[in-house]
Design a protein that fits this description.
The complex is a heterodimer of chains A (534) and B (254).
Chain A: H1 18-31, H2 33-56, H3 61-66, E1 85-86, E2 92-95, E3 97-121, E4 139-145, E5 154-160, E6 165-169, E7 173-176, E8 188-195, E9 198-204, E10 211-217, E11 224-232, E12 236-239, E13 248-251, E14 253-267, E15 274-278, E16 291-294, E17 297-302, E18 306-308, H4 329-350, H5 352-359, H6 363-400, H7 409-437, H8 440-458, H9 465-474, H10 507-531
Antiparallel strand pairs in A: 1-2, 2-18, 3-8, 3-11, 3-14, 3-15, 4-5, 4-11, 5-6, 6-7, 8-9, 9-10, 12-13, 14-17, 16-17
Helix pairs in contact in A: 1-6, 2-4, 2-6, 4-5, 4-6, 4-7, 4-8, 6-7, 7-8, 7-10, 8-9
Chain B: H1 2-10, H2 12-35, H3 47-51, H4 54-76, H5 78-85, H6 89-122, H7 142-169, H8 172-192, H9 196-205, H10 207-211, H11 227-251
Helix pairs in contact in B: 2-4, 2-6, 4-5, 4-6, 4-7, 4-8, 6-7, 7-8, 7-11, 8-9
Classes of the chains: A alpha+beta (534), B mainly alpha (254).
């Protein structure tokens, strides 16, 4: 009798774990030369275009002096850069207003009644006769401020041209109070109290029933602050076209407010009010804003604004943002989408999908493994591309002395990480589409129509802003909002268009739109992959 | 030639894609018309160009149609049969180019006519009225006729450019990515460049930026090139791509 020992493989008996599946898919990805080249190309194109854009985005000092055929220089201060006022937290601000002030030592409060707010346009605008222009964000009220230096910390209660009573602080903060316009028949009472670093604002329609509008802390406020009445009125701007970047015509305005019932508590060491044109406004010397005081009534006129500067073309702030260096990213995105498509369609074309599914019959897991591999690879490529474009572009722009918007590091981190996340999720979206339609050309078509074209249409002038904003709300391209370089302030009128980097959705909301589309596509892909023959 | 036509005719996807190209063009054009407003006091819009906005989006599908005309054969191995039956490769390429162009011209003509019609119907309601110096769009008006016919030619040249690239690189998704990347990168990049020397130079060079000058009907003097010169730049791109494609097709194994 001989015993026959049946053959046993020397390989250890393990379950076909998800780890092996991932490793298998990673090996497939890694060993196709064209796909790796495609990913590297995506990085090089994005970063390279970023550096090129940084070089070409401004008329740099050398190019102005170098060639004779240079066009007119648009930004007068491109060499050396314009000087901006910096507010608390490094925000670039405009700080120009007429200030009727007294020092306030220690804690105290100031209360006034505003009975009138009227505006003057410096020229005829919009067909209205000169002299009757009250812009929506004309401001008149009371303010507590860390000295008269431009850009210093403050908190203010104010009546506005068309936005009711507001409490604003440190240039970017804004809370709404009583609605409605100011007039002799419906005056507005305003009160600010200081208690240490804490400032509280109240408003009232009758001077007896008060409502608290907001409480906030101004860290590091000195014990003696400047407090009093202020009036300011921003530029009136009309945009000539609704088709993206057009022309804007701005002209200064002046607001005049009448205050009475001025009452104060606390220690006010000065004996009289001082009038101060902080920042000298933007009116010519002919119309110097001023105030006069008679029988407890103060009439104050001012021009300018207390607000953050808005970046982008046709706005007051810097023209260039780091987002401009990332515009080439859509080309990198196309390259990644091509790779992600082929990562799936190549399996169908070569019949490899049958082997893959024979080795791992759980089809949902195959799709998941592929999604993780292509998503991670795309994330790494996107990260490298974004870091290269943003850091390289910033370095060059700063070297050129360009008019570059300074980015808080958290925003810069969101832009870079967001770009990588956008590319990664877009790659997974592409993979899901490719699984559904199986053919490369159709998959690429769908991805280009839904992600690339809405973005591309938003860039050049000539396309109506309404159309691009609508596309950037509902299509997966909404995720480009992750690259928004600066916030859009409700309380500042400016040219907020997608071409300048102001998107209709908030950054993470836009990303959520892409994620939702991707989840739907993945679910449909998993369902079809399970249902269909291969 | 007849064989190529049969191939085209019997593939359901070509018909659908032609239809999609026309529909997408018209839809984006109409949406652009509806989203535009002309406020009092002078809008700088060009109503003809505005009503042909969809061409910028529809061209993506035209690219795909043209790419599939050639790379579809590579992906199935059909190309070997085609070349066995018809060993003169350049004739095959010429037949494909003629047929693709013809089909694209037909679809583009429908799309452009419908876009102009949409502009004629929608724009007067958005301020582009005679009161602001905008007569209703009419093909009887020389520049508008030039913009419309030029847009059809533009899409035909885009198809030829794509066919050339697809012949050279064979893989459909790579060809589509390459063509669309090259088309769209110029308008996106020039939109943020304020260095006017660079901007002018890039706009003159880009196949899409230069080619679309054919749609301009106002402020022609401010353009870096005349409309027909712009279309000529695109024609050069298409000729270059076709030449490279033909050389590679002629001398490489299938």
């Amino acid at each position: 009798m001989t015993t026959v020992t049946p053959y046993r493989s020397a390989a250890r008996d393990v379950r076909d774990g998800f780890g092996q599946l991932l490793h298998a898919e990673w090996t497939k990805f890694r060993t196709v030369r064209g796909w790796v080249i495609g990913m590297i190309l995506a990085v090089l194109v994005t970063a390279g275009l970023g550096v090129f854009l940084a070089k070409a985005a401004t008329p740099s000092c050398s190019s102005q002096t170098g060639s004779g055929q240079q066009g007119p220089v648009q930004h007068g201060a491109a060499c050396g850069g314009p000087v901006y006022t910096v507010g608390p937290g490094g925000v670039l601000v405009q700080d120009e207003f007429y200030f009727v002030r007294q020092p306030l030592a220690g804690n105290g409060s100031i209360t006034v009644r505003v009975t009138s707010l009227t505006g003057l346009g410096s020229e005829e605008i919009n067909g209205q006769p000169a002299g009757s222009l009250l812009v929506p964000w004309s401001k008149a009220g009371i303010i507590i401020k860390d000295g008269t230096r431009q850009g210093s910390a403050y908190a203010a209660m104010m009546a506005t041209g068309r936005n009711g009573v507001r409490m604003q602080w440190n240039y970017t903060g804004d809370t709404a109070g009583l609605p409605g316009a100011v007039s002799g028949a419906s005056p507005r009472w305003l009160r600010l109290t200081r208690d240490g670093d804490t400032i509280t604002g109240y408003d009232s329609a009758d001077g007896t029933h008060w409502a608290r509008v907001g409480t906030l802390a101004l860290a590091g406020l000195p014990s003696t602050v400047q407090a009093g009445l202020f009036v300011t009125s921003p530029l009136s701007t009309t945009y000539s076209s609704s088709l993206g970047v057009g022309n804007a015509s701005s002209s200064p305005t002046e607001a005049t407010a009448v205050f009475d019932h001025v009452s104060r508590t606390g220690t006010w060491p000065a004996s009289a009010w001082t009038g101060d044109d902080v920042g000298a406004g933007n009116l010519g010397a002919a119309q110097v804003p001023a105030y006069h005081q008679a029988a407890g009534r103060f009439t104050v006129s001012g021009s300018g604004d207390i607000a953050p500067l808005i970046a982008g073309p046709l706005n007051h702030g810097p023209n260039i943002t780091v987002r401009d260096f990332l515009l080439g990213m859509f080309a990198g995105l196309i390259a990644v989408a091509v790779v992600a498509t082929m990562f799936m369609t190549a399996e169908y074309r070569r019949g490899l999908i049958r082997t893959t599914l024979a080795a791992s019959p759980n089809r949902g897991r195959v799709l998941a493994a592929k999604a993780i591999v292509i998503g991670s690879a795309a994330f790494v490529a996107g990260l490298a591309a974004a870091v290269g474009a943003v850091l390289g572009g910033t370095r060059i722009a700063q070297g050129n002395g360009s008019d570059l918007f300074p980015e808080p590091w958290l925003t810069e981190l969101r832009i870079i990480a967001g770009t990588a996340a956008l590319i990664a999720v877009a790659a997974v979206f592409t993979l899901a589409i490719a699984t559904m339609v199986r053919r490369s050309a159709t998959a690429i078509l769908i991805v280009i129509v839904t992600i690339v074209i809405p973005f591309v249409l938003s860039a050049p002038p000539g396309i109506p802003v309404g159309l691009t904003e609508w596309l950037l709300r509902i299509t997966p391209a909404a995720a480009f909002a992750l690259q928004q370089p600066a916030p859009q302030y409700y309380q500042v009128q400016a040219n907020y268009i997608p071409a300048s980097g102001y998107f209709p959705l908030a950054p993470w909301t836009g990303f959520a739109v892409l994620c939702a589309w991707t989840a739907i596509a993945l679910a449909a892909a998993a369902y079809l992959l399970k249902r269909r023959d291969v | 030639m007849h064989a190529e036509w049969t191939k085209f005719r019997t593939l359901a996807s070509t018909g659908w894609l032609l239809l999609a190209a026309a529909a997408f063009t018209i839809a984006v054009s109409a949406a652009a018309d509806a989203a535009a407003t002309c406020r009092s006091g002078g809008c700088q819009a060009d109503p003809a160009k505005l009503s042909l906005t969809g061409v910028q989006a529809g061209q993506a599908i035209v690219v795909i149609i043209a790419v599939l005309a050639i790379s579809g054969e590579y992906s199935t191995g059909m190309i070997r049969i085609t070349l066995t039956a018809m060993p003169r490769r350049l004739t095959v390429l010429a037949a494909k180019a003629t047929l693709t162009t013809g089909l694209v011209v037909a679809a583009a003509a429908v799309a452009v006519l419908a876009s102009v019609l949409a502009g004629r119907l929608i724009l007067p309601g958005h301020g582009f009225a005679a009161a602001h110096g905008y007569p209703p769009l009419s093909l009887g008006h020389g520049p508008v006729l030039r913009a419309a016919c030029g847009s059809v030619l533009y899409l035909a040249l885009i198809a030829l450019l794509s066919l050339g690239v697809a012949t050279a690189v064979r893989e459909s998704s790579v060809a589509i990515g390459l063509v669309l990347g090259v088309l769209y990168v110029f308008p996106v990049v020039t939109s943020v460049i304020s260095n006017q020397h660079w901007q002018r130079h890039l706009e003159q060079t880009g196949p899409m930026t230069a080619g679309l000058y054919i749609q301009a009907t106002v402020n022609l003097r401010s353009l870096p090139l005349t409309p027909w010169q712009g279309l000529g730049v695109l024609a050069l791109w298409a000729a270059g791509a076709l030449t490279i494609g033909a050389l590679i097709f002629r001398f490489r194994d299938a």
